[in-house]
């Protein structure tokens, strides 16, 4: 049943019973499934706040299809594939039409995509979408691609290509150690790091490769000692959350002046604070935008509005962008029917606060810009504003378009019949 028809029925019912006004149209429900407890709860809360802000803004501007509101349901993944599948069923039972996820790691997101695939096959007409704002496993838009999955974050290969391009210009980087969390993303970050950096700098020596349990290591001193013994002065690490800040602090406590290369460090709470306390080494990361970035007025205006409404710092335009892309696709489709929305979304071009972005239809990978930047002290020129109440902020090193970083895809998309 189309939402406009629902609205007309509600209006008629209101007049029949003599109640002034009309009933609200049925909402379009999105299920947020990411960590809201455990060691990465702070990351999950940040992502949830960004999504909630965007949903509220969309609703304040009329919602979709001329009045249908978006409704964000909240579920705790507990960083577990099994738990995520359990709450997915709860989301379905509550009427969700789309899942928004990404902060639980690639293994959890992959599990959710597979579960949604099974559900959609068995329940035609009740299909769901998966909107992935942060898991960057290239397999999700490669061999494991799904018509129902859309990735609004740059993939591991795109991010590593941007970092490799910059590492290629740093003559002081001679020996690199690969230290990563022991799960799919950590292993991919190491693998693509070794491969792509070697392509631009075949002279660089990789001195070691180690993986550790995700979210379980409390003291990284032994790992730091092992890295030091190899003579490495730079680390490629896909660590995030407390696994990154604890690693950096252990290196600082040991007096190591190392250069860390990471994918999302500055958008994780506490990372800049840790660097300001250590005051040793460098931390270079890559994202679609960073606070203080020049010539990004639209992003700064959105960040200011977010700060004013929530009292919290704005970090990730791509997360804010995710429900806005969905809303645009619903309006483009003229329907909330999932297959029609997916077809509209897979050909989307959208003017966002970080510029025009394109959803690549072949594999549902969003092509968005990537900015390589380094956490550095405020100097009034390259770094004008501190972050997290410190005198450290972000220095832009290089900006790359999504198209220039796009990698060939192995996706063989299976689409539902028209």
Automatic annotation (TrEMBL):
CDD domains reported for this sequence: PBP1_SBP-like (cd06329)
UniProt keywords, alphabetically: Amino-acid transport, Signal, Transport
Keyword Cell inner membrane set for record: no
Superkingdom of the organism of origin: Bacteria
Domain Leucine-binding protein: 28-366
TM ranges: none
Family listed: Belongs to the leucine-binding protein family.
Any GO BP annotation: amino acid transport
Pfam families for this protein: Peripla_BP_6
Leader sequence segment: 1-24
InterPro entries in the record: BCAA_transport, Leu-bd, Leu_Ile_Val-bd, Peripla_BP_I
Name of this protein: Branched-chain amino acid ABC transporter substrate-binding protein
PANTHER family: LEUCINE-SPECIFIC-BINDING PROTEIN, PERIPLASMIC BINDING PROTEIN OF ABC TRANSPORTER FOR NATURAL AMINO ACIDS
